[in-house]
Amino acid sequence: MKYLEALRISKEAPPAPSLPIQVAMSGTADLLEAFLQAHASLAGFRAEVSFLPFNTLRQALHGPAGNNEVVVLFPWDFVAALDWRSGLPERDSTLEELFDEAHVVGALVGKRPKGSLLYVPAPIPPVLAKWQDIDELERGLLSHATEVGANVLDGGRFSLSSYLASGTPFGTNDLSAVARAVVEVAIELKGSVQAKVLVTDLDGTLWHGVVGEDGVDGLQHDASGIGFRHFIYQTYLKQLTRRGILVAAVSRNDPDLANAPFDRQDMVLERDDLTTLVASYHAKSSQISQLAEQLNLSLDAFVFVDDNPVELEEVSTQLPQVDCVAFPEKDRDLPGLLAHLARRFSTDQVTEEDRTRTALYRRRLEGLAPSELGGADLTSFLAGLEMKMTVQDHSAPGPGSERARQLINKTNQFNLNGIRWTDEEIDEVLRGGGQLLGATVEDRSGTHGEVVALLIDGGGCVRSFVMSCRVFQRRIEYAFLAWLLPQRADEVLMDYHPTERNAPFQAFIREAGVQNTSEGFVLTRDSFMAAHTGTLDLFRIAQPTS
Amino acid sequence: MDEQNREKLIELFRAVLDLDSDEAATAAHQDSEERWDSLNHVRLILAIESEFGIEVELVESMAQTSFESTCALLTAKGIPVAQGEPST
Fold it and tell me: b vs e for A421-458, b when ≥16 Cβ sit within 10 Å of the residue's Cβ?
């Protein structure tokens, strides 16, 4: 498949269910996008593709798996010294040391969802003195990758020239085949992903009858007669809550009316078994998407059960990621429903944490418990990178600032405002008492070059602040500011503007605590330092050189 | 054939750089087109390699700074591209 053909296929594809694909790969994966879209379209899906920032796979492996994540691994993801882009290491390692590193990474990789791994046995550079050891390392890594559950792609798909030129590890002619393999994995994962939340309708589903018409006394949910299958359904939901599955109820009804049957306390499923009961006259799709947002869970973790085909269609149209299942009209169809739910909510074991999950999430919805904490694992990983930041002052006239100026004019994502600057404009700011600062970063695997640039004018306003996307998620931007701010006034004005492409900077603005005031966007030194001074511990900082 | 190649190249430039006219594509220059950033440059080279079945070396890739220079590269690789009207 050629590039334009791929674009045409996805452009002309009819509406289709969504297929989330998060490609987790250490190299540049963006070029796969057109082919991922096309192969998903050919398979009857509409791909929602996302990628990890360049060279952040190891950090990502310390966190939870992304939505329908497909991890594409190379030998250097197991052993960093094997990365062609780093050149050959200065220090000789032993085969044992390299395998030790591979096993540490393998343990992390092995925790990813089953069936989500692809391994590309690309050629490796000769990092060991003995040729037989190199061969053993190559075979050992392949074996290790399959042990942790990876499917193996043809190593010939790797292209060194493409990897060196753009960071994309695949040759142009192989992108389509790789994309097809990734889409196949994503489709398999979508079908087998464990659901986390069961959202049930009430009238006609949790009980027989309509509470608004039949009254609480008219509802049937006992182990007899027409209510029998609702009784069995309730006992199954009760069992799910004991296993840590969240069960929520939605109803297009008055809240008092929807809660009334639970107040009688004569049902198997009690009010406290529910994470929440959402009763309003909003569309059920809106109730469910709001719930997903509050619980901070992706919509493909939701299964929705309702007896009304119209409600099911409304939700499946608005929220194609949600698995919509009909509550049967006949007893004979009940086993089919329960079998489907059993597959979607399958668990290997139930922990103490699982048993208390409903209560935890209920407290979270009530605003009494914090959401997920940040990853201590990631901090420890970053500390282990032995990063060194060297700050450069390019304010004086003369050569040496080309890279900083280029960064300002080429960077889109982590970019304060997207404004491009000519050399003359920058020089004018510098003549007015401003500063142009840059920072180079190196770590134990080598140097990343100059990756940060910041232009601040004589009045103390940050006019440009950019960082290369190849060093995302290393807390470099925070450490850089933690170094800079103690030398500046209490409050630093930032000429911030959101753009279509600077989403990472928008996230930074929120996390860094930048305030939108009548003066403009202001970063307050003391509050920033209180929250982020710890990032300095992740780096050795070398003072400005000019 | 030359004209078809030119049309194909215009389509590639428009698709990759998200340009709204053929004229914008043929006038595209890396220095003046904001959307021609480093990632889109790589996309452009990939699209050209994929569509015309050629390999573009790193040094050749770096020299591609305009629609016209890309026409010249293709022609040099045996894929003739029709000359357009001179841009004004």
Answer: beeeebbebbeeebbbbbbbbbbebeebebbbbbbbbe
Is A108 an interface residue toward B (CB < 8 Å)? no
Q: How many residues does chain A have?
A: 546
Show which of residues 386-425 on chain A sit within 8 Å of chain B, judged by CB atoms: 410, 412, 420
User: Residues A374, A380: contact at Cβ < 8 Å?
Assistant: no
**Taking CB atoms and an 8 Å limit, are B50 and A31 in contact across chains?**
no
Give the A window 139-178 contacts with B, CB below 8 Å: 161, 164-166, 168, 172-173, 175
Asked whether the whole model's pTM tops 0.90, one would answer: no
Residue A327, amino acid = F
The pair of three-digit structure tokens given for residue A126, joined into one six-digit string:
């000769």
Residues A39-95: tens digit of each pLDDT: 998 887 889 899 988 888 988 888 888 888 999 999 999 999 999 988 998 888 899
Task: State how far the Cα of A59 lies from the Cα of A438, in Å rounded to an integer.
Answer: 24
B60 to chain A, any CB pair closer than 8 A? The answer is no
**Residues A226-258 pLDDT 10s:** 999 999 999 999 999 988 899 999 998 888 889
Distances (CA, A) of A50 to A67, A377, B71: 9, 23, 33
| Nearest C-alpha neighbor of A286 from the set A269, A274, A304, A309 | A304
Neighbours of A508 (CB within 10 A): 19
The rounded distance, in Å, linking the Cα atoms of A454 and A438 is 6
Q: Is B51 on the interface with A (CB under 8 A)?
A: yes
- The secondary element (H helix, E strand) that includes residue A69 is strand A69-73
**What ipTM does this complex have?**
0.87
| DSSP-derived secondary structure for B8-59 | HHHHHHHHHHT-SSHHHHHT-BTTT-TT--HHHHHHHHHHHHHHHT----HH
